[in-house]
From TrEMBL:
InterPro entries, sorted: Expan_Lol_pI, Expansin/allergen_DPBB_dom, LolPI, RlpA-like_DPBB, RlpA-like_sf
PANTHER family on file: EXPANSIN-B1, EXPANSIN-B3
Bilayer-spanning residue ranges: none
Signal listed as a keyword: yes
Chief place of localization: secreted
Lineage: Eukaryota, Viridiplantae, Streptophyta, Embryophyta, Tracheophyta
Cellular compartments per GO CC: extracellular region
Protein name as catalogued: Expansin-like EG45 domain-containing protein
Signal peptide extent: 1-21
Keywords noted in UniProt: Glycoprotein, Secreted, Signal
Top-rank taxon: Eukaryota
Location(s), subcellular: Secreted
Amino acid sequence: MWSSMQAHVAMVVALAFLVSGDWCGPPKVPPGKNITATYGSDWLDAKATWYGKPTGAGPDDNGGGCGYKDVNKPPFNSMGACSNIPIFKDGLGCGSCFEIKCDKPAECSGKPAVVYITDMNYEPIAAYQFDLAGTAFGTMAKKGEEEKLRKASIIDMQF
């Protein structure tokens, strides 16, 4: 049984996650079947590419295969990603959020960023691949190194 102090600490921790934006769920994005898969606490390896404008939201139509529009605005804020079959899940993965990060090349910061599945990648280059909006790809870089990271084109990353 929890003491009132333990309950208070748990509530403060939960509120800190919500306010800081470091926690992705519960889903903030319609439509309904937003499922963030439970992959566990281990980081999984993936490949990352990027598309669209270097500091853009990704697709030319400012939407994507999930049917969202204006992905450059909240709640997506240009942090969209195309994903391949194991993540996209025939559209059931639309709106799911994932923490991503990279450690290599040297321009990578190693700090996690949150991206949202907004589109399908039909030509994967790895078992897990994120084709990120230019803005989302750049968030994995050290400050001021975003353009250098984008020039790497395809990178190893974790999610």
